[in-house]
């Protein structure tokens, strides 16, 4: 694998007699979204503060693009850190400055840009983070969510190559949490920066992360993809992930992917050999259009309503569901063969076209301005047997998707 | 701290407890306090010089002017009020003392010299400490505990340049100006009580000022107040900047205690340095 962008080698940090990080080894790669997970007070934020140079390690070394920071010249360090930006857990907005001035501050103080150019860039970020109405208000006059977005806008104003997010979703409601994560993912794709997150939002954060680092008992005990983490056999899984997952199904009301797998495993063990089950694969097309036109909140409202409805409908008949990706949901119907599943889906679509469409449409089409837009809901069914590989059945269901609903949003509706 | 006296192999445990340690406790306390003082003095001096090296930079002028407005212009009302009554009381007291010697004609020079050389610089510095110094400590302290100063670091904005340097320079500019206002209004106060209320001849009052007040007295007064400005601004900024490192408290309480310490320490240092500077100037 290529040289890591940031690497920790045996980094130890103590505060008095208390060792917070002990021989921490980790690698962060360029262009990826890397999330550090762990219990509160485990030292996750401390890792970010080491990366940005706010804190120095007591032992060990930190490497930036393969070079030890301790051995760099002052100018090299300044150049390296100038590529980074940091979004604080508590936002760290200047309470005596307006939102506009907070966002403009790094440009005013560290660049020679003209006032008009600064204004253009700041207003662009303000619009992207949906803060236009709050631009000339003070941070204390804003809601927690708006403050987060202002901090995000300030972190991104200098177009950094590396952005560190310290619990960007703390203190937010489920919709807003996912909206912020979705915003980070969108900006990361758009501006191609390297994102390093500290988050508790398991499993939601998996959807936007390329790599997960697990901090447990003062050390990094896992580095890998979210999929690899699902098979990670370690006390960390029981103590940390399980406890967090129990709290983190608020957005859609659905199970996490890992819980889904466990349920599936239990079902398969209970069922007789060769017994059928069905997988229903749902996806929301043009969700990005909703994000672009109506904002991240509207998109998360749609996902929440869809998840709640799926859970309500299929949960009542023994099915269980999970969110597979940002815009994908899957439901397992145990002991159902294909024809039974098709009949269940028919009922679902019938109900869906009645009451549910209106609910989701209301969520998706909030504050419609400009051109009309459409959101298509697709569903596909595939049948499996207790002996068959569930991933293959899911892939088959995905490939057989058909349109089951279309929502039309236009001004005045 | 260990007190090992037996280099031939005496046990460390012997020195940790027992009556010996109890006897040494006051010395330990004094020693630690002195070390802390010296440590802080050194740190504050480095802090001051580092901040002064950041004075000249782009966009600093605007921040300095902003701070002059905050520290200086906004303090004028309180300075004028205090100085008016200080001058009036001084005129009143001095008149009754001078009458005993038949020297009421020297009232103008006594009031003006007292104000210019002593009361003006000291009371101005104390009043600004109470009004602006405490606010500076609280402001920087809150910025410290709410990670705003860390945020400046992450934005590659030097906090000393952005927050501290303009305040120190503004104090150095504002203190002498406010002292001049204090002196002038104080002399007017002395005029009101001496001339208007007690009947001293106006020409005698003014002539006595012109005859006995030297330019050197005025310069010495300004030298003093510049020293006070450096002390007050450094102490107040330093206390706020390192509020998070206080050993006796944390968070908002640390900011509160830092503010109290800044005001008390500034006032004590104003009076101590007043004596030192006066003895050097006389």
Present the secondary structure layout.
The complex is a heterodimer of chains A (about 425) and B (about 280).
Chain A (H helix, E strand, L loop, with lengths): L5 E10 L2 E11 L4 E5 L6 H8 L7 E6 L2 E2 L5 H9 L1 E4 L11 H12 L4 H14 L15 H13 L5 E5 L7 H18 L2 E5 L12 E6 L2 E6 L1 H5 L4 H13 L9 H14 L5 E10 L1 H8 L1 H20 L4 E6 L2 E7 L3 H27 L8 E13 L4 H10 L2 E8 L4
Parallel strand pairs in A: 3-8, 3-9, 6-7, 7-8
Antiparallel strand pairs in A: 1-2, 1-4, 4-5, 9-10, 11-13, 11-14, 12-13, 14-15
Helix pairs in contact in A: 3-4, 3-5, 4-5, 6-11, 10-11, 11-12
Chain B lengths: L11 H5 L1 H36 L6 H13 L3 H24 L7 H39 L2 H7 L4 H39 L4 H11 L2 H27 L9 H31 L1
Tell me what you see in this structure.
- The complex is a heterodimer of chains A (413) and B (282).
- Chain A contains 13 helices and 15 strands.
- Chain A has 413 residues and is of the alpha/beta class.
- In chain A, the strands form three sheets. A six-stranded mixed β-sheet of chain A has the order 6-7-8-3-9-10, sandwiched between helices.
- The N and C termini of chain A lie far apart (52 Å).
- Chain B is mainly α.
- Chain B has one domain.
- Helices cover 82% and strands 0% of the residues of chain B.
- The longest helix of chain B is centred in the middle third of the chain and has 39 residues, at 107-145.
- Mean pLDDT of chain B is 89; it is low at 1-15.
- Chain A binds chain B through residues 49, 52-54, 78, 81-82, 84-86, 88, 90, 92-96, 105-106, 108-110, 158, and chain B through 59, 139, 143, 146-148, 150-151, 153-157, 162.
Series of secondary-structure elements of chain B, N-terminal to C-terminal? HHHHHHHHHH
Q: Fraction of residues of chain B in helices?
A: over 70%
Query: CATH topology of the largest domain in chain A, what is it called?
Result: Rossmann fold
Radius of gyration of chain B, in angstroms, nearest whole number: 24 Å
Going by helix content, strand content and strand pairing, the class of chain B is: mainly alpha
How widely separated are the two ends of chain B?
45 Å
Which spans of chain A have pLDDT < 50 for at least 5 consecutive residues?
Answer: none
Q: How would you state the average pLDDT of chain A, rounded?
A: 82
Specify the CATH architecture of the largest domain in chain A: 3-Layer(aba) Sandwich
Number of domains of chain A: 2
- Placed side by side, the strands forming the largest sheet of chain A appear as 6-7-8-3-9-10
The end-to-end distance of chain A, rounded to whole angstroms, is 52 Å
Oligomer: heterodimer
Number of strands of chain B: 0
| Coarse structural class of chain A | alpha/beta
């Amino acid at each position: 694998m290529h040289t890591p962008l940031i690497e920790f080698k045996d980094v130890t940090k103590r505060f008095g007699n208390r060792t917070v990080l002990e021989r921490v080894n980790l690698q962060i790669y360029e262009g990826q979204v890397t999330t550090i997970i762990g219990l509160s007070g485990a030292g996750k934020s401390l890792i970010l503060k080491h990366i940005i140079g706010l804190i120095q390690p007591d032992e060990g070394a930190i490497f930036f693009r393969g070079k030890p920071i301790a051995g760099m010249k002052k100018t090299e360090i300044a150049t390296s850190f100038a590529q980074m930006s940091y979004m604080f857990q508590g936002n760290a907005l200047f309470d005596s400055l307006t939102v506009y001035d907070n966002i403009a501050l790094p440009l005013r103080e560290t660049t020679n840009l003209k006032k008009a150019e600064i204004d253009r860039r700041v207003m662009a970020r303000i619009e992207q983070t949906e803060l236009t109405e709050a631009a000339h208000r003070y941070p204390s006059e804003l809601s927690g969510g708006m403050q987060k977005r202002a901090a995000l806008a300030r972190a991104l104003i200098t177009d950094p190559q590396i952005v560190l997010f310290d619990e960007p979703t703390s203190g937010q409601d489920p919709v807003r949490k996912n909206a912020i994560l979705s915003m980070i993912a969108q900006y990361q794709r758009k501006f191609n920066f390297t994102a390093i997150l500290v988050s508790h939002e398991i499993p939601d954060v998996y959807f936007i992360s390329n790599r997960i680092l697990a901090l447990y008992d003062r050390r990094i005990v896992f580095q890998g993809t979210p999929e690899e983490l699902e098979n990670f056999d370690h006390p960390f899984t029981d103590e940390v992930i399980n406890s967090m997952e129990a709290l983190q199904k608020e957005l859609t009301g659905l199970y996490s992917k890992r819980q889904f797998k466990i349920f599936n495993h239990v079902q398969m063990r209970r069922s007789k050999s060769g017994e059928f089950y069905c997988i229903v694969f749902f996806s929301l097309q043009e969700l990005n259009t909703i994000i672009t036109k109506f904002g991240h909140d509207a998109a998360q409202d749609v996902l929440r309503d869809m998840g709640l409805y799926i859970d309500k409908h299929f949960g009542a008949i023994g099915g269980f569901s999970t969110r597979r990706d940002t815009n994908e949901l899957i439901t397992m119907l145990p002991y159902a063969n294909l024809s039974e599943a098709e009949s269940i889906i028919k009922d679902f679509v019938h109900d869906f076209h009645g009451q549910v469409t209106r609910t989701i449409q209301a969520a998706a089409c909030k504050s419609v301005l400009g051109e009309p837009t459409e959101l298509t809901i697709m569903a596909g069914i595939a049948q499996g047997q207790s002996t068959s590989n569930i991933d293959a059945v899911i892939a088959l269901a995905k490939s057989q998707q058909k349109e089951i609903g279309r929502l039309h949003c236009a001004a005045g509706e | 701290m260990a007190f090992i006296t037996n280099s031939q192999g005496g046990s460390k445990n012997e020195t940790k407890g027992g009556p010996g340690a109890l006897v040494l406790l006051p010395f330990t306390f004094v020693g630690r306090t002195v070390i802390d003082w010296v440590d802080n003095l050194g740190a504050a001096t480095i802090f001051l010089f580092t901040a002064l090296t950041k004075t000249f930079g782009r966009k600093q002028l605007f921040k300095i002017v902003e701070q002059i407005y905050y520290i200086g212009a906004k303090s004028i009302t309180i300075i004028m009020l205090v100085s008016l009554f200080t001058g009036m009381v001084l005129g009143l007291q001095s008149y009754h003392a001078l009458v005993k010697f038949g020297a009421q004609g020297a009232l103008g020079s006594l009031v003006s010299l007292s104000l210019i050389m002593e009361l003006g610089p000291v009371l101005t510095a104390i009043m600004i400490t109470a009004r602006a110094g405490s606010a500076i400590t609280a402001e920087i302290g809150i910025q410290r505990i709410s990670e705003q100063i860390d945020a400046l670091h992450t934005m590659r904005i030097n906090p000393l340049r952005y927050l501290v340097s303009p305040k120190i320079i503004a104090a150095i500019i504002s203190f002498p100006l406010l002292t001049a206002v204090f002196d002038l209004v104080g002399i007017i106060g002395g005029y009101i009580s001496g001339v208007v209320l007690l009947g001293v001849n106006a020409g005698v009052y003014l002539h006595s000022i012109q005859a006995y007040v030297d330019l050197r007295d005025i310069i010495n007064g300004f030298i003093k107040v510049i020293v006070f400005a450096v002390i007050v601004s450094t102490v107040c900024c330093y206390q706020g900047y390192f509020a998070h490192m206080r050993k006796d408290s944390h968070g908002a309480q640390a900011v509160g205690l830092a503010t109290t310490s800044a005001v008390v320490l500034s006032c004590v240092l104003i009076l101590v340095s007043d004596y030192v500077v006066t003895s050097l100037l006389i």
